[in-house]
Design a protein that fits this description.
four-stranded mixed β-sheet, alpha/beta, homodimer, 34% helix, 10 helices, 13 strands
């Protein structure tokens, strides 16, 4: 039962207190796929323009990534994003953004991908997420991300999407905005009322809170690391580790969801240790498993 | 081996989005003692003025609290503090503060308390903390709290104190200030170099990070609660639960320290559920133990 991701491919320029990485590869689908591919085959859907400088097949070589959903649109330009992280690394400003191909028609789900069962809809307009999801015949577990602008300006679409998904993965500030609740636990409970059976509230350096409709809860700190070079992609690689593990185990019971959140947490801790995909490209599944055991030790009492 | 606390007794006026509590009992020694008394006998040292409206012996009746260190200074006035919490409850402003008796000579440690072995020095001028500690003959495990003004203005005294204590319990922002390190793990490691063998970095709603000189680490989220009415005293009751459990077990190995941090976390989650001591007065050790088991379930994977 294959794992599908739809999301962005970006040309990023990132400034942090540790340096600058110009025109490096980024985008939600890229980070997600790199992370998920440690666990499971991945079906990739995303669009670039003719200016795309990256060799994406080469990037994923040696990994089980099906790129039949990668579209190169000859008359378009690739999404670009430039951002600067403040000294504390917990906040960033967008210096510039060119949506380019992301503002055009979305990609089509290839016929060969229509039987995907595990699906991650990375952050984009909820109307597009609904359209993409409608092309999947019998999804088993669908997770989506969203952000403040959709909550503020496309709430009806987002509410419609939430009735169709199993899991919302959302930042703490956005959860509070969506639920109109400042308490994160109550915010998660409100969001569960909107449709999904699982809500994961991401709190960056403070870890995550996972709430299920049956009242089950799981709280996990971030991996305690001194290596924080570039937080870009932490959320999407968290989602990749999470969904990758679910697809690997073909299970979504509470115990599996908890381990999946822990894997997401661990993969994100590698992502932020260097710019772009630089660290994720170097590690192995064994490195991830070692760190998962260390996280278990760090949190058990 | 008895547990000793030195700290403040306050007349608090607290405004939160949930209401206002005027002239209620507060102060670090009060919160600490109420929390610690669930676990261990407590020896209490603190000073009030003649205006103190509280019956402190009655407050602690039924608990094993030795009040021979409670001094009523007839010519003085009691410490007063008024504060307002913002809507998010994670920040507060001090509306007014009258140090009163806290600006005078500190209390003397009664001779009968000089053989105390577990000692908590609540936040005050580090010079006073050193003087109070010097009156204890053979301390076994000494923890102290501090705050930004001492780091900024009395750093030499604080550095001297840190050479004499076993454990510093400190807020995340203050840890960063003290260590001149923005990464919390690195900040804790720098603080360990200053003397203590244990550092606990408190992160409020985000839990805590405990680091030992031997490299051991423990990260624990806050208890996921929707009941947040008044965060005042959370830090001091955390310290009370932590030190109370250590004194109960007469042990400070890593496993015990971790359970003690979990107990502190749980007691603090009760403290914040109502104004002042209102919730702590109502609960039992069984309530605390139940919630400890729930916290273990919420965090294990």
């Amino acid at each position: 039962m294959p794992l599908l991701v739809t999301g962005s491919i970006g040309i990023d320029t990132i400034r942090t207190p540790h340096g600058c990485s110009e025109n490096c590869i980024g985008g939600s689908a890229i980070y997600f796929t790199m992370a998920a591919s440690f666990f499971s085959p991945v079906r990739f859907i995303g669009v670039v323009g003719s200016d795309c400088p990256f060799n994406i097949p080469h990037l994923f070589s040696g990994r089980d990534v099906d790129l039949r959903g990668l579209e190169v649109r000859r008359t378009s330009k690739t999404f670009r994003w430039a951002g600067t992280y403040k000294e504390t690394m917990d906040d960033r400003v967008t210096d510039s953004m060119e949506l380019n191909v992301l503002a055009e028609n979305p990609p089509v789900v290839p016929e060969a991908f229509a039987d995907s069962t595990f699906v991650f809809l990375a952050n984009t307009a909820p109307r597009l997420q609904i359209e993409l999801l409608s092309q999947i015949k019998s999804p088993v577990f669908v997770a989506a991300d969203t952000m403040d602008c959709w909550i503020a300006e496309h709430l009806a679409d987002l509410r419609e999407l939430m009735m169709k998904i199993d899991c919302l993965i959302i930042n703490a500030d956005e959860a509070k905005l969506l639920a109109r609740q400042l308490n994160p636990v109550r915010a998660a409970e409100e969001i569960l009322e909107m449709g999904p059976s699982v809500v994961i509230v991401k709190k960056g350096e403070s870890g995550s809170l996972t709430c299920l409709k049956d009242g089950s809860k799981f709280v996990l700190p971030a991996y305690p690391t001194t290596e924080v070079v570039d937080p870009t992609g932490a959320g999407d690689s968290f989602a990749g580790g999470f969904m990758g593990y679910l697809a690997q185990t073909q299970n979504t019971d509470f115990g599996t969801l908890k381990t999946a959140v822990a894997y997401g947490t661990v993969v994100a801790s590698f992502t932020i240790a260097d710019f772009s995909l630089d660290r994720l490209k170097k590690i192995t599944r064994a490195d991830i498993d070692d760190r998962l055991e260390r996280l278990r030790e760090f949190t058990s009492f």
